[in-house]
């Protein structure tokens, strides 16, 4: 595993925040060796723009409060289908369920190690 402990801690905080706002199918991926520009991805789904925005707001709040980190950039807010939060060391994708199926990040990165996010079992 190439994800540093501090990054894994932030990723777990983001995953817990997403779960608190009812995100589904939350997955952490160790993409550092494959991409080289970031250590990890967090991918999760939601059924509506409103929920996607609530999830992103909670992730940003919890990661800032607990770790002092803020995204370097945000993309897709207002699109209703996919918001990307780029923290540099981790990238968070909050996607509409249909967009996730179409773009298939899970399939594109199926060969990288999954990360233990320490979340209770999900039915997403």
TrEMBL record:
Gene3D superfamilies in alphabetical order: Beta Polymerase, domain 2
Organism: Nesterenkonia massiliensis
Assembly information from the UniProt record: Interacts with ribosomal protein uL14 (rplN).
PANTHER family in the cross-refs: IOJAP SUPERFAMILY ORTHOLOG (PTHR21043), MITOCHONDRIAL ASSEMBLY OF RIBOSOMAL LARGE SUBUNIT PROTEIN 1 (PTHR21043:SF0)
Role noted for this protein: Functions as a ribosomal silencing factor. Interacts with ribosomal protein uL14 (rplN), blocking formation of intersubunit bridge B8. Prevents association of the 30S and 50S ribosomal subunits and the formation of functional ribosomes, thus repressing translation.
Family recorded in the similarity comment: Belongs to the Iojap/RsfS family.
Intracellular or extracellular location(s): Cytoplasm
Protein name (record): Ribosomal silencing factor RsfS
